[in-house]
Amino acid sequence: MGEELGEVEKEVLEAQAVADEQGNNVRALKAAVKKGEKTKEELNEAIALLKKLKLELDGKRKRFDELVGGGSASSVNKEAFRRAVGNALERRMFITQSFSIYGGTAGLFDYGPPGCAVKSNIQDFWKRHFILEENMLEIEGPAVTPAPVLKASGHVERFTDLMVKDAGNGECHRADHLLEDVLKKMLANPLDGGKRKEIENVLARLDELGAQELGAQLKKYEVKAPDTNNEISDPFPFNLMFATSIGPRGDVQGYLRPETAQGIFVNFPQLLYYNGNKLPFAAAQLGQSFRNEISPQQGILRVREFTQGEIEHFVDPEHKDHPKFSRVADLEMLVFSREKQVSDVKRPVTMKLGDAVKSGIMDNETIAYFIGRVYTFMVAIGINPERMRFRQHLEHEMAHYAEDCWDCEVESSYGWIECVGIADRSAYDLKQHAAATNKEMGAWITFDKPKFVEELVVEPISKVLGKAFRKDAKTVVSALKTMTEENALKMKAELEKSGEANLKAFCDGGDFVIKKDMVKIERETKKVSGKFITPGVIEPSFGIGRILYCMFEHTYYVRESAEGEKEDDKKVVFKFTPLVAPTKCTVFPLLQKEEFNVVCRDVCNSLVDSGLSTIIDVTGTSIGRRYARTDELGVPFAVTVDHDTLEDNTVTLRERDTCSQVRIPISDLCATLKNLSSMKTKWEEVQAQYPSQGGSASAAKEENRTEATYSLRCP
Amino acid sequence: MGEELGEVEKEVLEAQAVADEQGNNVRALKAAVKKGEKTKEELNEAIALLKKLKLELDGKRKRFDELVGGGSASSVNKEAFRRAVGNALERRMFITQSFSIYGGTAGLFDYGPPGCAVKSNIQDFWKRHFILEENMLEIEGPAVTPAPVLKASGHVERFTDLMVKDAGNGECHRADHLLEDVLKKMLANPLDGGKRKEIENVLARLDELGAQELGAQLKKYEVKAPDTNNEISDPFPFNLMFATSIGPRGDVQGYLRPETAQGIFVNFPQLLYYNGNKLPFAAAQLGQSFRNEISPQQGILRVREFTQGEIEHFVDPEHKDHPKFSRVADLEMLVFSREKQVSDVKRPVTMKLGDAVKSGIMDNETIAYFIGRVYTFMVAIGINPERMRFRQHLEHEMAHYAEDCWDCEVESSYGWIECVGIADRSAYDLKQHAAATNKEMGAWITFDKPKFVEELVVEPISKVLGKAFRKDAKTVVSALKTMTEENALKMKAELEKSGEANLKAFCDGGDFVIKKDMVKIERETKKVSGKFITPGVIEPSFGIGRILYCMFEHTYYVRESAEGEKEDDKKVVFKFTPLVAPTKCTVFPLLQKEEFNVVCRDVCNSLVDSGLSTIIDVTGTSIGRRYARTDELGVPFAVTVDHDTLEDNTVTLRERDTCSQVRIPISDLCATLKNLSSMKTKWEEVQAQYPSQGGSASAAKEENRTEATYSLRCP
């Protein structure tokens, strides 16, 4: 089905291009008719053709939609959808370009009030879900990092992307992105089968290409600089770390950390001590990381400064079972194993984690346990589980030290986006820092039961040797002690056979005749209670901004207008879970009357006092418009104060997605909203407890709700 | 009293120096006696003198302690206290030097698990206390900032400290710190009155000195480089911002933000729009700021990367009253006005905020309201209100644009530390960014009632003028329109008197005779509904690390040993408020038995599930030692599972500071601890509700608790 889908998508894009061109023709003709240069007949003919082309386009688009079902869509729809979400995010100041009054800086974004609140809620939940519930050790270190730390970790040498320069204006571009864009455009046009296969093959291997091979491909496909069409340089590596200088002398090189992980690794000895010198344990850090991207793009998905949450789980490499694995073993999710990716099907399968471990698809319980915890985290904050998959890295994608790696990928209008990486980094980082600092970066593992190990002990009898060899005794003792096990056994045999043996036959110790009473060579059984190891590390690493953006796309929908409303009065809604909603409740007066406003302020204050983020909207616009405004911010609940409130101290409580309402006493409001917001109580339970109230005329009805996955029906 | 205190402190320091020197003598004599170079009698004599000197020193120290009471102490005691607190913070990994396995980097620190949790709790409370409760607009922007933004704000030019270089090894030092150290050492020795006054005068003015004057003073007092005693360079300005380069071309200069405030200012137009174009409103940002300090010192008080919380309250400069001021008007605190600082008394006075505003000591309600909110914040997180004062900046301390500025200073072993600055920055920043970008950075203020303004209107009658002057009409119209009000009135009088007037008599319009019907000059009343202004800004700015450190000092104490314990078994306690405590509860089994452990794990899990940070300690050490361990982490409550628990499902609940215990059913534990932790319930209320339980033998008794403010009685 995948291949057919690709064909149809291509057809849609081609038909779109043809229709667009004809649209331009029609516009040009219209102008020409006005000037008298063309006849009306010519124009009408062109319009008729345009209509025909549009019909064809619609037919192809429909066929494409049928093929993809609800989960995907044409790139045309995707772009329109993405623009609509972006507009909503910018209009309500969820996210804005940083320093926009100065023209903005590529790859830097600000979170405005609602975006900041949503991000903060997700981070708080991350801390609760992982740090608190898994009893992790949280640390917070600086972003400014001295160079030796990042030399040891390999970042100074290898944290690079390949870059090309525009030979004309010096503009820089990512070499792989440039090649990718050109090849994808080629694929959109008719090509013979061999050529298409060839290009698809290059695209599939894009991540693997080194500077030389990438350079050769750029030449082969005659890639030029975008916009200018100038020649480009050969690809060369550009280090993505922001460099700076620490201290006033200017001689201490520093970088802004490209990941939060290293701040944990360098603290390993202290953290181990803090944990009572016991393995396994996990440490975590949530904070800013910095990557000086060559050409940032895709909104907040590839930025120069971002919030990262990283967990380093330190474990005895020989014991990667997990005591709490049974709690996640029955969780089912989309698993896209390495094997499936290289097979003909190329599709993930729904699988239980327990089965994934049993069948060996996932290497061990610990990595699978974290995959399970990531899954429950993502679902809790509003990611659609049907549009999330765990994809195993192919061999070439993994760092050379990594043992296994799974990405939690979420489908967005940009395609499948890596939001969380769960990697088995082995003991690489700790060993690197140990080598760079000469510090002990290991842990003592006590065996469950002591082990008994047989070993050969060579014990020179110093007293006898001293008498026999005087000043040479030291040399002899040292020679005996450093004999290989094999030679020691040979000497033992010789001594037992003939009573003496010449040292020079067994090692470079010189010409000394050793007697039987001069050395004891025996096999002994030793009790070993444990061993010293460098722990393995399993690292779940979260890009908070990416998760946030995908969540925005998954929670965005457009509510159709209710009867009697204007057609273009489409209403944008973010169906945030109460957990992440920036504001839990909006309080309105039904009409702009001071006696209503007084009650609204009291209600709002009591909700805020109990820790619930609440806003008040006393502007004079219609209640329907105010509901729409609060829906666009994703506020899950709204309270309306009306005439009845003044009589009986009850208010209307409305739920965002169903638009259903109940009548509830003010005295119950705080507790009810707290439970709804912490997701202890479901809306249905509240509905069962309190009398329902008819929605106001302008409020949309439940059946009008549209879950517009890439729907073009948006403003 | 202040002056006497200074004298006595000087005496203590002098006596200490003399005693130290005699101590050295005694050690030298001991060695000499061994070698037979001196007699035993000489040694005994020296020892007797040392004993006498030490007695004198103790007497002076005692007198000093009497004078200062509990609130302050000698610098000797301060240092020992600081070391003890520092040891405790490092021992339990609250705070550690960053990159310590690489030798550490000056001015960079890590927060370990308990430090991170305390910091996180303080930040959460900051968000709740300010952003949620004051309905502020929170934003989050990047640290990486393009140069033009910081040029406009003045940081590129003026964010500097004066630096000197060691002529020998190139080491850099802060010029003012060097002078200060030398002068303070001079003051510690006997000096004639004139000299002492002179030096005290220089110290008082240290902040005001420019490069030239500071250079002159360094020369005058013959200041050399510390450690090496080399010559030093003249002072020169060093910019404290970390510089970096944005993007791959290397031609976009950037800096790490030195404050979070500018990220708010550049978003002002969008934030104003978000707020419905209404003033006043406040925006806030909590995040990392970076300052490349010349010589970081004083632990985490002066660092190169730190968390800052900044609030910008935008307000009509003519209306700085605050609707919620009455809520803080009766709050009493130590207020150290500019006037008191320059008076003879030099002491803050306890004052109500209402009175401070009424008497004009504080400029307006808004700045006083924020001072009140800062006060309640600081007290809630554990700062001792008797060791906190609000000090007004002296004229020379303020930035040239600032209208008023108050520091919340907290007393620590380092002296009075600025933890929060509350500044009226006027419209400076917004005007700077407006000028740099040509963007509108103002707001429209609608008057409560429209104002009626009388103004003189000069209305040339174009038709008549056109006929009379033809091609010159334009010149005449323009001349009439730009007349001063005074001349227009004179012309009006002339026209009314003689029916005509020559233009040249009233302006540079040329020789034209104007008739009465050619121009209408009338006073008219106009209705004005509002005006366009650049808002003033009141900025409370918080250094989270400084607040944290002062809180550590204010909550540290040493519990004396109970009877039967070893003398040196002193126990360190941090009496964190439940709000900021890193862990709310520790769960212990009384003995290391599996049936106890099972219950402990269940209790711990249920507490964690309800969001309470809980740890479990099942190590085999004595219960007393385990209590001591949890006290040192500042855990306010501990649960012990014992034999009775298995019978009746009750446990012992212990409060940290009183060491008192109650017996409570496990089923009540969650709710009780939640209420205790959120400070809704007091421990006394829990004591009243449940039967008390005798403390274990090794638990210290309440009367043994020592609130050691700078006590030397610490490990």
How many domains comprise the coordinates of chain A? Answer: 5
Q: Quote the CATH topology of the largest domain in chain A.
A: BirA Bifunctional Protein, domain 2
Mean pLDDT across every amino acid position of chain A = 89
CATH architecture of the largest domain in chain A: 2-Layer Sandwich
Number of strands of chain A: 30
- What's the Cα radius of gyration of chain A? 34 Å
Oligomer: homodimer
Strand content of chain A: 15-25%
CATH-level-4 superfamily name of the largest domain in chain A: Bira Bifunctional Protein, Domain 2
- CATH class of the largest domain in chain A equals Alpha Beta
Dominant shape of chain A: globular
Strand order across the biggest sheet of chain A? 3-10-11-21-16-15-14-12-13
> Which structural category fits the helices and strands of chain A?
alpha+beta
Q: How far do the termini of chain A sit from each other? A: 32 Å
- Report on the biggest sheet of chain A: 9 strands, mixed
**pLDDT below 50 for ≥5 consecutive residues: which ranges of chain A?**
696-715
Number of helices of chain A: 24
